[in-house]
Write a structure and sequence with these properties.
The complex is a heterodimer of chains A (157) and B (221). Chain A is an alpha+beta fold. Chain A has four helices and six strands, in the order αβαββββαβα. Chain A has a six-stranded antiparallel beta sheet with strand order 4-3-2-5-1-6. In chain A, helix 2 (36-56) runs antiparallel to helix 3. Chain A is elongated, with a radius of gyration of 17 Å. Chain B has a single domain (2-202), classed as P-loop containing nucleotide triphosphate hydrolases (Rossmann fold, 3-Layer(aba) Sandwich), CATH 3.40.50. In chain B, 44% of the residues lie in helices and 18% in strands. Chain B is built from eight helices and eight strands, in the order βαβαβαβαββαβαβαα. In chain B, strand 2, helix 2 and strand 3 (56-60) form a beta-alpha-beta unit. The longest helix of chain B has 17 residues, at 130-146. Classes of the chains: A alpha+beta (157), B alpha/beta (221). At the A-B interface, helix 1, strand 1, strand 2, strand 5 and helix 4 of A face helix 2, helix 4, helix 5 and helix 8 of B.
Chain lengths: 157, 221
């Protein structure tokens, strides 16, 4: 049953629905092996460049651009909320080199819509991976799901 | 079972605070469960929390305060029946509304013998970018602050004194009854206070009449 409260929820979520989202799960293969320092550099470069692209496409606020990397040597979490402050990176990773990893990237920004966020993210992933000499494969692209979630609230709700 | 929600817009520092406060509460002898919600299909935060040595239940694909309130209620009922935590710390999506989450949590009482109590609603406000937030998502930020029992002026390690003061004044103007504390997940400032509040204080249950009254006053609804 709908009431004033539900109407307010709906209105606020619609306001928040101006958030554009994109997420992807990617497998990485580093033939030469990768150290923790190099992996942190990779994560920082990804976060910064995705953020820059989102802003250049018209985003006015970064909700967050986050990445979570899992490898046999441990994990790295990277999060960028404010480009003035930069990427916050934490890790639980040993110093041993690793060759394969899984990376989840999630971007949510205000002011541009899902297709622009995807267009800001996918080419950056490709370019950064090439620059770091990493082969990659997108295992799952959450674009369609994210898009349907963003759009789930229609006038019929 | 006490529900402690840590609300706030995206990027306000909810996950970092939650992890540190959860560890503090575990060290104080509490049995803690964590529920993390994201409107998106994928949740990076749950992975991060688990890498920190905590178990997190992830609810994705909608907002637990309204769209998937049923899944949230069901999760709480299962947590109670299988794990019986003292405190469930909830990180709602950055677009959740605190009173809606209270209401959704109480739905779990219909699915189990659980009796829900609420810790004070804690809303984080990012003091480093208060002006940007007010300009882009003012109404959402206002609602999260208005429904808070405690407002945490967060990221004070990175904000200027002027921004911290501006954030406090903004919070006061929206919700004069909220207690206001400074916090920083980086330096640890305010974290013990947050743990104490969650541990020892209660917030009223969801009150539909009260919320309608507030809505009428604020929005003329």
């Amino acid at each position: 049953m709908k009431d004033d409260h539900d109407d307010l929820h709906l209105e606020l979520h619609r306001e928040a629905d101006n958030l554009g989202k994109f997420a992807a799960k990617i497998s990485l293969n580093a033939p030469q092996g990768m150290t923790k320092v190099e992996a942190k550099d990779l994560m920082d470069t990804l976060m910064v460049n995705i953020t820059d692209q989102c802003l250049s496409k018209g985003a006015d606020i970064i909700g967050h651009v986050k990445g979570f990397l899992t490898s046999e040597s441990g994990t790295i979490m990277a999060s960028l909320v404010d480009p003035r402050i930069g990427t916050d990176i934490t890790d639980d990773m040993s110093s041993s080199r690793f060759t394969s990893a899984e990376l989840v990237v999630h971007a949510i920004v205000h002011g541009i819509w899902d297709p622009e966020v995807r267009d800001a993210t996918v080419p950056v992933i490709d370019k950064v991976m090439k620059n770091f000499g990493i082969e990659y494969e997108v295992l799952q692209d959450y674009y369609e799901k994210e898009k349907s979630i963003s759009h789930h609230m229609t006038e019929e709700d | 079972m006490k529900i402690a929600q840590i609300a706030g817009f995206l990027g306000s520092g909810k996950t970092s605070l939650l992890m540190k406060v959860s560890k503090e509460l575990v060290n104080r002898g509490h049995k803690i469960a964590i529920v993390v919600n994201d409107v998106g299909e994928i949740n990076v935060d749950a992975r991060f929390i688990e890498s920190y040595g905590l178990k997190a239940k992830e609810i994705s694909g909608g907002c637990i305060c309204c769209q998937i309130a049923g899944s949230f209620a069901n999760t709480l009922a299962i947590l109670y029946d299988t794990f019986d935590p003292d405190i469930v710390i909830v990180e709602p999506s950055g677009v959740a509304i605190p009173w809606g989450l209270k209401r959704a949590a109480e739905y779990s009482e219909a699915e189990s013998n659980v009796v829900i109590e609420h810790a004070p609603v804690i809303t984080l406000v990012d003091s480093t970018r208060i002006e940007m937030l007010i300009s882009a998502v003012r109404r959402l930020i206002e609602t999260q602050i208005r429904e808070a029992d405690v407002a945490l002026i967060n990221k004070i390690d990175a904000a200027s004194p002027e921004d911290i003061e501006k954030t406090k004044e903004f919070v006061k103007s929206i919700n004069p009854r909220a207690r206001i504390f400074n916090a920083s997940s980086k330096t640890g400032e305010g974290l013990e206070k947050v743990a104490e509040i969650i541990e020892s204080e209660l917030s009223p249950r969801y009150d539909e009449a009260l919320e309608k009254e507030l809505l009428k006053k604020e929005y003329g609804a």
